[in-house]
Every structure is written in structure tokens, then in C-alpha cells.
Amino acid sequence: MVDVFIEAFINDFNEQTKMQNREKADLLTQIEAHNTRLKNALIQKIDGELDNKDYVALKKFTSETIEKLRQG
User: Fold this and answer.
1) Lower CB density within 10 Å: C or N end of the chain?
2) Over the stretch 4-62, which tens digit does the pLDDT of each residue have?
3) 14, 8, 65: which is closest to 36 by C-alpha?
4) Residue 27 and residue 71: Cα distance in Å, rounded?
């Protein structure tokens, strides 16, 4: 009986770990996408395609979003 309980506990733990890993991977993907967006905005600013006001606003929004994602 103890073996069945231990096996059920291990299976549940493994499922929770898989779910947490998927969530972590999703968050990292979102952070990477926002970092890419910020990098592209910087390139557009340097190329003169984006004015400084818009760049600053985008940078602020993106940085805040990344920080929220990091906090979970």
C-alpha cells in the first residue's frame, strides 16, 4: 500500500514539475520576444525610423512588461 502511495506522489510531483517547466519556458519566450521588440525599436531609432519620444515610451512599456513577467 505504501508503494502505491509513493508512486502516486512521485507521479503527481513529476506532473507538477512538467507544468512548472512549461510555464517557465513560456515566460522566457515572452521575455525574449519583448527583448527582441526593444532591440528592433533601438535599431529603428538609430536608423531614424522611430523618434525618441516613441522609443522612450516603447522602452518604458517593454521594460515594465519584462519586469512583471520576471516576477511571475
Assistant:
1) N
2) 888 888 988 989 999 999 999 999 999 999 999 999 999 999 999 999 999 999 999 99
3) 65
4) 10
> Which DSSP category does 48 fall into?
T
How long is the chain? 72
Lookup result for grid cell 523618434:
51
DSSP collapsed to 3 states, the chain: CHHHHHHHHHHHHHHHHHHHHHHHHHHHHHHHHHHHHHHHHHHHHHCCCCCHHHHHHHHHHHHHHHHHHHHC
| Cβ contacts of 12 within 8 Å, gap of 6 or more | none
CA 55 to chain centre: 21
